[in-house]
Amino acid sequence: MLKRIALFVLTALAMTACATERAPERAASLPQSWELMRDLKAGGWEPPFFEGTVRTFPDGYHLDLARRALAHPTTSITVGGFDYRTSPELIAAGQEIFRTYHFGSHLYWDFRRTIDHATGITKPEDYETIYGVKRDAEGYFVGIVGVKRANGDVDYGHSCALCHSNVADDRTIVDGMANHDYDIGRYYDALRTKISDPEVISLGDSALDVLRFSGPGRTDSTVDSHWAPMRVPHLYALRAFEHGVRANGDMPNLWIQCYRNLNAAYAVDSEIMEAVMAYMLALKPPANPRKRGEREQRGEAVFEAQRCHRCHLPPYYTDGQVVDWSVIRTDSDRIVNGYPKGYKVASLLRLDQYKLYLHDGSLTELTQLFDPARLQPSYEAPGIPTGRRKQGMGVPGHMFGMRLSPDDRAALVAFLNAL
């Protein structure tokens, strides 16, 4: 799910007593201009590239939408021992909520104005290219939403779609497909040169100073004072989850996961939650254009011979279970302060659409998973800039398939890319 960024602006925007107590020698050096967000908002300044690119809704629009959907008869589905209501109307309302509801993020994401001002970006194309925020066929940003207040002012927030939707070649929105181009680390890194003390801003459990290591397609969804970025996953196998959600299964059900990650400080109405649950549980991967020929069939035989299907079993290619860390061995830093001490079996559906692999995104090509070279402590996958790597990253990953012949390895990769 989309990362809930708990934004604590301690003194980067206003020099409070808290900052004076923490670092009195630095407080005086923080420029008065860090009341910038307040001043920009008071002056009516808007990001110049938002005009005509951000859909805006009055607060309350999505609640009315969900309530109308719930007026229709529903049925119930059970996932991981929990029941969820669903209906065609509820799924349709959930789609719009997934794409355009703020989940309370407009209360803190207005901080975006200062970042936009600091970067000096003035064109939608730059914003898309530099930060990986996608746009649809009509030119609107996917996942950035405006919340129009009664006095006409607009606050900006984000929806699930910012991280969990992508766009096809024709610019149609593909919900549930991870956006591995969205680079939240680079986004906030734009502020680092503007702040005298990077520790005065905390984002979730991470000081601003460390976010430059995240790289695109990764986020830290924990709030445990321990920074451990994770790969943003596709959402196509939610019905397969048997023992919680998130990378290590520490959230007991989808409802709690969404509520905790999206709105820890904002009470989202239950009707909205029900609608978005119904939609996410109805998500299916788009058809894979790759045809299953002789090589893919051979790869499927290799898949079964290596007993991969014991954990990655059809139709979701996951059993929804948590596997002990000693088997997976991905990012021990994440496991140190996490519980359970393991990782959920990742779904392999539309594996070909990922740009990052393993739970922590420390591999950048599927072929690397079967390359013995990744077992070496010095191994670094190409594609992630050296200056933006987290030390102690989670390579190697599990050992299955490591002794395959080149032909069997190529066949297995072809099969996996065809799922």
Q: Would you write up a description of this structure?
A:
Strand 9 (201-203) and strand 10 (206-207) form a beta hairpin. The protein starts with 6 loop residues before the first strand and ends with a helix. Residues 1-34 have low confidence and may be disordered. The chain folds into two domains: 44-282, no CATH class; 294-417, Orthogonal Bundle (Cytochrome Bc1 Complex, Chain D, domain 2), CATH 1.10.760.10. Helices cover 29% and strands 11% of the residues. By secondary structure, the chain is α+β, with helices and mostly antiparallel strands. Helix 4 runs antiparallel to helix 5, helix 5 crosses helix 11 and helix 12 crosses helix 15. It has 15 helices and 14 strands.
Q: Whole-number radius of gyration?
A: 22 Å
Major beta sheet, strand line-up: 1-9-10
Cα-to-Cα separation, first versus last residue? 22 Å
Q: Percent of residues in helical segments? A: 25-40%
N to C succession of SSEs = EHHHEHEEHHHEEHEEHEEEEHHHEHHEH
What is the count of DSSP helices, taking H or I runs of 4+ residues? 15
What's the multimeric state?
Answer: single chain
Mean pLDDT: 81
Low-pLDDT stretches are 1-34
Quote the beta fraction.
5-15%
Shape call:
globular
Largest sheet, in brief, is:
3 strands, antiparallel
Global structural class: alpha+beta
Offer a concise description of the structure.
With 419 residues, the chain is an alpha+beta fold.
